[in-house]
Amino acid sequence: MLLETFHGTDLRRVFDDARRALGEDVLIIRSAVSKEGGVTRVEVIAARQQDLHALRQRLEPTMPALTRGQGGRTRSGPFLLALVGPTGAGKTTVAAKLAMHRAVFGSRKVGLITLDTYRVGALEQMQQYAEVMNLPLEVLYDAREVPAALKRLDDREVVIIDTPGRSPRAKDANGQWQALLRAITPDEVHLVLPATMRPDAVPALVAALAPCRLTHAIVSKVDELHDERAVADVAARVDLPIRWIADGQAVPDDLHPSRSRILSALGLPQASSSTRAA
Questions:
Q1: Average pLDDT value for the chain
Q2: Cα separation of 248 and 202, whole Å?
Q3: pTM for the full predicted model
Q4: How many CB atoms lie within 10 A of CB 128?
């Protein structure tokens, strides 16, 4: 876990416990002292400074550079951004937020592609978003349809690609839409990671979706957390740059820059700072 909580009755001793557990570079995120029935209660939340620094380094600026092509590939046409992730992660809603939010792509012309022809109601949901936003939408069932679909979207500057939410264990179904995604060759592939997922389950999910050539992550469903500090634990387990945080159903408002939202949840300033256990 990124954050560790320590309890005791003496603040100095609890600080020492944190230092012994986390090492000399321990950073105190928060400390609280209270009285219950005449007994002093101390709670200290701490993390390793190097772990927090690594997390900060992965929190990217909000406006993407729109660098074309993974692995040095070059091509003409729109910038292609794909969303992948587990069932229930909220990928379709995130796609709509990215398409509409002015802070994401500014005034660039956006188009949509959906590969999600599996889930009941998924296509209808994306069609409704496309109609409301007045954006072109292409629905793909087969890799042979990709060239024509991209040609129809050639006047767009950015195309957002929605994919089915599938269990990592559903290998046959995953193979079908992943073949479609490979035919599209997106410039960026964002893993939509629900904040409610157990942090220790994140590495297995990332490994299962590695064939998609993940480049970034978006943390969703932050509004469903009992304690928003837990978003940092999930974010810390995925070794990918994180640009956005999604925390509700409102389109496009419930989309926020990752740096300000995660650091705020931790009670940390935007600029690097530390409080060491003395």
A1: 86
A2: 21
A3: 0.84
A4: 13
Residue 111 vs residue 277, higher pLDDT:
111
Question: Which of left, alpha, beta for 192 (phi over 0: left; psi -120 to 50: alpha)?
Answer: beta
Q: What is the mean pLDDT of residues 43-49?
A: 91
Q: Give the angle subtended at the CA of 187 by the CAs of 185 and 188, to the nearest 5°.
A: 115
What is 63-265's CATH superfamily? P-loop containing nucleotide triphosphate hydrolases (3.40.50.300)
113 CA to centre of own chain: 20
Are 126 and 119 within 8 A, CB to CB? no
**Tens of pLDDT, residues 131-148:** 999 999 999 999 999 999
Taking Cα atoms as reference points, which of 83, 126, 106 lies closest to residue 215? 83
> What count of other Cβ atoms lies within 10 Å of the Cβ of residue 216?
21
49-58 vs 230-237: helix crossing angle, rounded to 10: 80
- The domain segmentation of the chain, as residue ranges, is 4-54, 63-265
For tokens 């090492």, name the residue. 23
User: Sheet containing 188-194: which strands, arranged edge to edge?
Assistant: 137-139, 110-114, 158-162, 79-84, 188-194, 216-220, 242-246, 255-257
Residue type, 275: T
Please tell me whether residue 252 adopts helix, strand or coil conformation: coil
